TRAP transporter substrate-binding protein
Amino acid sequence: MKLLKALTGVAGAIALTTGSAFADDLRWKMPVAFATNLPGLGSPAAWVADNLTTASNGSIQVRVYEPGKLVPPFDILQSVSDGKVSAGYTWIGYDQGKVPAVPLFAAVPFGMKPWAYIGWYYYGGGHELLQETYHNKGFKVHAQLCGIIGPETAGWYANKIESLDDYKGMKIRFAGLGGKVLEKLGASVTMMPGGELYQALEKGTIDATEFSMPAIDQILGFDQVVKYNLFPGWHQQFTAQYMLINQDEWDGASDSQKALVEASCTAATTLGLAEGEYKNGAVLAGFQENGIHADQIPTDVLKKLKAVTQEVLEEEAAKDADFKRAYESQQEFLKTYKVWDERAYLPADL
Amino acid sequence: MKLLKALTGVAGAIALTTGSAFADDLRWKMPVAFATNLPGLGSPAAWVADNLTTASNGSIQVRVYEPGKLVPPFDILQSVSDGKVSAGYTWIGYDQGKVPAVPLFAAVPFGMKPWAYIGWYYYGGGHELLQETYHNKGFKVHAQLCGIIGPETAGWYANKIESLDDYKGMKIRFAGLGGKVLEKLGASVTMMPGGELYQALEKGTIDATEFSMPAIDQILGFDQVVKYNLFPGWHQQFTAQYMLINQDEWDGASDSQKALVEASCTAATTLGLAEGEYKNGAVLAGFQENGIHADQIPTDVLKKLKAVTQEVLEEEAAKDADFKRAYESQQEFLKTYKVWDERAYLPADL
């Protein structure tokens, strides 16, 4: 033991002398799309970075850059693929313009619950399909599921939603495939990062916005501007975040380093879901005490939104082969999942 | 770099010469309560052992012993606490006779869904309460949540359950607090490990049994003996498994090794839930095609089971301070969780 410590000491001294880490060490810059103080959505990135340093005894060090400090939130994929940064942490649905299939791995309207999604992702070939999806569009990244949260809310509005007509002409921030659904209904849909939404809502640049779940929306302060927080979040029953790693960096990592990244990200998926489920109830109860209406969108409106969603999904599948493949794989899984889901869980009326 | 590799080579040669691992390395024997071929329930233990070896570059090696090969399934806690083995992997509810509060961390009748449980465990103080619970009863273990699955079924029966009277005189294998509920209803409740159940059911030693979820029960073959697989599993809406580690072993581990065990176990929690949710639907659909009745227990029977459960939980809380503390902590969380749960998820009738 003494000899080993002495040897390690020598090696450590060499590293200090050259002023650089060992060639086998990983030093990654990781811009993130979400502030790390946002529960479940941003917090997993910070946890993963810390955990990688501790668990690897410093052999892996990931430096997190808060949104916009190094790379704008919507430029993360391109920057990682180009090797400008080694890694990034984001909601990959933001890139649906460049990679049409990514929303199926990020949030599907009227889609899977989070635990069904992780089932499909880890055991139904989802992880492998996602790698192929990026490579087929020329992006040089390895994508690792690295956080998931439960449903978003349907968003923040000045008034209730009582019919599909209410969306007509509404200036709304809405992400992913859900945004395409609202566009079909005549809404003027814009995209902007979370950090810009409060001001846009306050100034009237937008009339309404969805962003995330209560524990997050409270931090962004939407309840201070509008009073209707509508449910359920039909457009995002799960929201998945990924760590994107430049493909050359990933290929150059050792088996041990890869295992560490994979295990840390998979752990972050548990922690993200847990944090949201733990915190949302109390925040939502607090909203209600302060006069926020936590109303349900009427069932007939939801049914119509579902029908329009179906059209959007089929249009996207017709346009892009990767979308079609992932969509059909998910639908195939859901056929039998339904048999389980309908029986396994306790009815709500007990 | 060349010098470092040379140094590592020397160190490796020393290890070979002495024939032992370095003092800082961990070499753990880990008996498990569930065969590692059981999806979600047994598989996480094997995954964690493999992952720890890879991620630590061999510094941690956990050797898994299948059920009964080293330690009988129900003796795992005691063996780990006594230091006869360094670690064990089990459903901790088996020890409710010695540690009355453990079922609250393992499976609560009419209790939390898996994602609510992990919320409470990781963010609501559950992890810390569990350590105190063991220490208060004199057990020297560190407990790490290391796998969770969704609902069990209500079990396997020769006939439907149509009233509470059907449980009277029934010889049934039923675990945890659910077993106490059925005892109150006049059932003759026995406990035995999963590996012994098929034979007991076939020979008529028991009339009925619960064990786990369809993807697991199929492997154990209950569908070959009786034809009613009833739902929902009111007694175990979540089933949590833990890695128990001898306290001295845990205290002696480095920060890096602790972080590796924690991250691997937390990742195994994601993977366990995912594996079950992915596999159960197809297995259950297969059962139905082969004439197994996947029937619901009538709502009025479930309501009565819930009322008796309430009595059992209150009796246990009155008898044991740790039970009371954990029970009240869970109930407090559920008050606000309900506000979220009722609104966030899509209604089933869309």
Notes: Chain A touches chain B through 86 residues (CB under 8 Å). Chain A has twelve helices and ten strands. The beta strands of chain A are 26-31, 60-65, 87-90, 141-149, 155-157, 171-173, 188-190, 208-209, 228-230, 239-246.
